[in-house]
Amino acid sequence: MITLWHYLAVAAALFGIGLVGFLTRRNLITMFLCAELMLQGVAINFVAFARFHGNLHGQVFVLFLLAVAACEAGVALALILMLYRRGRSLDVSRWQDLRELGVPAAADLESLPVVHAEPDPTLTPAGARPAPVAEEPARV
Amino acid sequence: MTLLAVEPPSAAGQLALAAVLAAGGAFLLLPKPGLRSVAGGVAGLVAGLAVAAAWVATTFGGPVTNYVETALFGLFAAGALGFGVVLVTQRNPARGAIAFAFVILSVCGLFLLLAAPFLMAATVIIYAGAIIVTFLFVLMLSQNDGPSDENDRTREPLLGSLAGFAFVGLILFALGQNHAGAASLPAQAITPSEQAALRAAAAELTAMTEDAFYTTGEPKDRSERVARLERAVEDVLGVSGGLDEGTVRDRSIATRLRAARSDLHAQGVLARVGAARVRAADTFELVAAAARNPARYPPAPARTAAAGLRDDLLLLAGVGELPARNVANLGVLLYADHLLAVELAGTLLLVATIGTVAIAHRRGTAA
After folding, report:
1. Does the distance separating the beta carbons of B155 and A110 come in below 8 Å?
2. What residues in A contact B338, CB-CB < 8 Å?
3. pTM
4. Alpha-carbon span A30 to A51, nearest angstrom
5. Which of B158, B322, B327 to probe by mutation at the A interface, max A CB count within 10 Å?
6. Domain boundaries along the sequence of chain B
7. Is residue B104 a contact partner of residue B126, using CB atoms and an 8 Å limit?
8. Contacts of B125 in chain A (CB under 8 A)
9. Is there a domain that residue A128 lies in?
């Protein structure tokens, strides 16, 4: 039988996965999605408690949580846009000047693998190249 | 000494093993320039999930009574967790957004299993918009030419995974401790077996009100039926209709609830049980009098009282379930109990809109 505890366990795991993503990933958009993942874990908790107490107060709480998540999404995406305009990158480590006093700056020691991009295929030119013609004088 | 005589690991050991396995898997899967192994990472995460699922099944699991519910719960839970891992470990943020859409769908399935259809619909609608906007941002802002710092590097992948999964392990451990302490605490005020007993007693009452004796006054001995009915009601309510005074029935709802729960919901159920008990005593008195001397005590009042008692029992049987009209009851609750919070949420949305415009506004001509 599926009980309240099963739902609480799934919600805790979902929250933890979002937490790992938020702590480790460096792309601002991915970090935003991971924060939303944590909110979903919290929402499952509320709805499960509402179900097993037999009232609807937990569901009402999730409605407010949806409103707060919408506000958060708006402000976060505006901030991402501004940071991109300033730094031309979605990397949060570009903003590590904002770190605490006394914490050493993180440096990327290993270099990224260089991928040789194949140039786009082109057709060999066919036919004779037209001889350059002296520019016609204007007939005006 | 034999190696086979290994004790099964304790709950803490099992959870620590699951956390370490999952953290190792996540470390291998997270994008970074050095060590990255998709097969090893998936194997570690699946092993960690299997150990944790085994712990959940042995700690919280009871007999499987509803196979469809269990299968759907497993499907949606695995979907949410699996696509969550894909979102976290995926290099391409556009694919991450697709994985997030599937996480939302799985969570909506869980909402549906938890009897929250309105929230399911609202979440799908709101997050569909959110995911499309995220897609637009990915298309607008990310450069897709080769590896980049933001997508192919992670901050402290090993320590971050260990911190996150150790957190999950600790929460699960605390849940297990609480569950062990509250094993006798029923999740619902009225358990399914009590619901069945209440419905059976109500059916008995229905049969009694349709009995010809109470409609036409035909004289016939009804003592056997009355005794059976009294036993059925007594079992669930703990009321004694005068048969054997002073017996303590363990199955009565009031005894169990008073011992295990003290919250508002349980108090409401107790009040209902008390009211039903009083009504049952009155009903039995009327029925017995009508059976003894139909000429002096007319059977019609007994019939009315039996019908009322039946309604009480049916309401009591349904008291552990959520109201069927989800949207209507949510609306009543929102606008009757939480009106101030609704207004505050509206204000919050307005402030967030103004803040968003203020943040994203270009000052001057070109940035």
Report:
1. no
2. 60
3. 0.75
4. 32
5. B322
6. 11-181, 192-317, 326-359
7. no
8. none
9. no
Question: The CATH number of the domain where A83 resides is what?
Answer: 1.10.287.3510
Average pLDDT taken over every residue of chain B: 81
| Contact between chains at B141 and A117 (C-beta distance less than 8 A) | no
Q: Is the pLDDT of residue B184 over 50?
A: no
Q: What is the pLDDT, as a whole number, of residue B80?
A: 97
Q: Is the model more confident about A41 or about B235? A: A41
Q: Is residue A135 part of a domain?
A: no
The predicted model gives B210-225 an average pLDDT of 64
Cross-chain residue pair B322–A51, CB shorter than 8 Å: yes
- Residue A78 falls inside a structural domain: yes
A12 vs B146, B161, B168: nearest CB: B168
pLDDT score for B251: 53
Mutate to test the interface with B, among A27, A57, A65, A99 (most CBs of B within 10 A): A27
Residue B44 near residue B183 (C-beta atoms within 8 A): no
Note the pLDDT tens digit of each residue in A41-89: 999 999 999 887 777 889 999 999 999 999 999 999 999 999 999 888 8
Q: What are phi and psi of B154, to 5 degrees?
A: -130, 155
Query: Is the Cβ of A15 closer than 8 Å to some Cβ of chain B?
Result: yes
| Structural domain total, chain A | 1
Please report the DSSP string for B309-334 in residue order. HHHHHHHHHTTTSPPS-HHHHHHHHH
| Residue B49 and residue B68 in contact, taking contact as beta carbons nearer than 8 Å | no
Rounded to an integer, what distance in angstroms lies between the CA atom of residue B310 and that of residue B203? Answer: 8
Determine, yes or no, domain membership for A27: yes
Show which of residues 78-137 on chain A sit within 8 Å of chain B, judged by CB atoms.
Answer: 78-82, 84-85, 89-93, 106, 108, 110-115, 117
What is the domain range of residue A66? 4-95
pLDDT tens sequence across B349-364: 999 999 999 998 887 6
Q: State the ipTM, two decimals.
A: 0.84
Are A56 and B322 in contact by the 8 Å Cβ rule? The answer is yes
Which of A54, A71, A115 has its CB closest to that of B188? A54
DSSP code string of B195-263 = HHHHHHHHHHHHHHHTSHHHHH------HHHHHHHHHHHHHHH----SSSTT---TT-HHHHHHHH--S
Q: Give, in degrees to the nearest 5, the angle at Cα B231 between A52 and B286.
A: 105
CA–CA min distance B188, chain A (Å): 6
The secondary structure of B264-286 as a DSSP string is: HHHHHHHHHHHHHHHHHHHHHHH
Beta carbons of B312 and B282 less than 8 angstroms apart: no
Percent of chain B surpassing pLDDT 70: 80
Give me the pLDDT at residue B203, please. 82
CA atoms within 13 A on the CB side of B216: 5
